[in-house]
From TrEMBL:
Gene behind this protein: leuB
Origin species: Salinicoccus kekensis
Cellular compartments annotated: Cytoplasm
GO CC, any one term: cytosol
Binding-site residues, NAD(+): 76-89, 279-291
Enzyme class: oxidoreductase
PROSITE patterns in alphabetical order: IDH_IMDH (PS00470)
GO molecular function, a single term: NAD binding
Binding site for substrate: 96, 106, 134, 221
Swiss-Prot/TrEMBL keywords: Amino-acid biosynthesis, Branched-chain amino acid biosynthesis, Cytoplasm, Leucine biosynthesis, Magnesium, Manganese, Metal-binding, NAD, Oxidoreductase
Cofactor note: Binds 1 Mg(2+) or Mn(2+) ion per subunit.
Name this polypeptide is given: 3-isopropylmalate dehydrogenase
Length: 355
């Protein structure tokens, strides 16, 4: 199979983890007889430094013409004080919006070997297998106005969702639940927010169309608690943009490190952008210590969701699992009896377990 991939390494640890993911994909292409071609583009602070904008139209066009996009991470203190409309994060929000990537899948999988690496009790962590379905192109992130008022004495952000935007992500949640354990938790703040009350009505209407899925509504605050007291309770969790952002970082604690969590941002028609859940980690950039597994597992999600190469995706996931089973891990993971390695060695270890 021939596929063309646009890589956007971005800022901070982005380039290091992208190098790792590309090496793994090249090994997959060689072993499984595919032709993957790569072209690289700029996003975030790197793009701002080069051309004064965090995402230019040409890169956006290249993304639209690629078979899939791999993204490292954007942002960092270097750009904290620049005009808010030019901040690295704006490039990320723009590419998600312009490509229509409304469904963000964030699987929370626990690797058995890493159960002791979680700060939570082993009895709590074991059996966790959650899929977050996060709405990615609406809500507070995109609502306007978003501005200071009264000479800086007040401020407004706007939360907007259309019925259609909620319906399509909720439908995605139901479809995902059908392919997994058949349980769907819809997370909202319906005791306070009108947007959440509309969200609940739509979930209830969809529930009637999908009677085989067991649905529960849950409030976001108590969900945050339950996630780390009883994560095995959850199967698929569907929620709006900001709640999904916060809850997925929280859920990373269950697994032992945010450096393990991949994500897929999909347009509902097979096209996707794949990126780790974590950010540019400026505190550890350039030191060969970043955990590359979130990026590598994001590449595996690309193989599965955009290229329908399930066997190849599973080969990558199994290689990650086997490297960890042998105790090979980066320094963000803390457990007894393993072998601590740098980023490059971690990538090599994963590659050595493919096939
Ligand atoms: N998708 C993205 O591009 C994305 C996501 C989140 C944050 N950000 C941006 O990244 C910048 C830094 O944000 P932050 O520090 O709040 O979050 P972060 O996720 O970058 O880092 C949080 C902590 O986790 C550690 N960490 C993250 N990924 C790791 C990995 N793979 N291996 C080992 N340790 C890892 C970091 O060292 C840091 O201590 C900000 O500018 C933020 O806007 C970007
Ligand atoms: C960098 C930021 C805009 C982004 C988000 O909030 O969506 C990040 O935190 C993420 O989780 O992908
Ligand atoms: Mg986030």
């Amino acid at each position: 199979m021939k596929k063309h991939i646009l890589t956007l390494p971005g800022d901070g640890v982005g380039p290091e983890i992208m190098t790792g993911a590309k090496a793994v994909l090249e090994k997959i292409a060689e072993d499984f007889n595919h032709e993957f071609t790569f072209e690289e583009g700029l996003i975030g602070g790197a793009a701002y430094d080069a051309a004064g904008t965090p995402l230019d139209d040409e890169t956006l066009e290249r993304a639209k013409n690629a078979d899939a996009v791999l993204l490292g991470a954007v942002g960092g203190p270097k750009w904290d004080t620049i005009d808010k409309t030019l901040r690295p994060e704006q490039g990320l929000l723009k590419i998600r919006k312009e490509l229509g990537l409304f469904a963000n899948l964030r699987p929370i999988k626990v690797f058995d070997k890493l159960i002791p690496a979680s700060p939570l009790k082993e009895t709590i962590v074991g059996g966790t297998d959650i899929l977050f379905v996060r709405e990615l192109t609406g809500g507070l992130y995109f609502g306007r106005p978003s501005e200071r008022r009264d000479g800086g004495n007040s401020v407004v952000d706007t939360l907007v969702y259309t019925k259609e935007e909620i319906e399509r992500i909720v439908e995605y949640g139901f479809q995902a639940a059908k392919l997994r354990g058949g349980r769907l938790t819809s997370v909202d703040k319906a005791n306070v927010l009108e947007s959440s009350r509309m969200w609940r009505e739509i979930v209830d209407a969809k529930s009637a169309e999908h009677p085989e899925v067991k649905v529960e509504h849950a409030l976001v605050d108590s969900t945050a608690m339950k996630l780390i007291t009883n994560p095995a309770h959850f199967d698929v969790v569907v929620t709006e943009n900001l709640f999904g952002d916060i809850l997925s970082d929280e859920a990373s604690v269950i697994t032992g490190s945010i450096g393990l969590l991949p994500s897929a941002s999909l347009n509902g028609e097979g096209f996707g952008l794949y990126e780790p859940v974590h950010g540019s980690a400026p505190d550890i950039a350039g030191q060969n210590i970043v955990n590359p597994l979130a990026m590598i597992l994001s590449a595996a999600m690309m193989l599965k969701y955009s290229f329908h190469l399930s066997e190849e995706a599973e080969a990558v996931e199994a290689a990650v699992d086997n490297a960890l089973k042998d105790g090979i891990h980066t320094s963000d993971l803390d457990f007894e009896g393993g072998r601590k390695v740098g980023t490059e060695e971690m990538v090599e270890a994963v590659m050595s377990y493919i096939k």
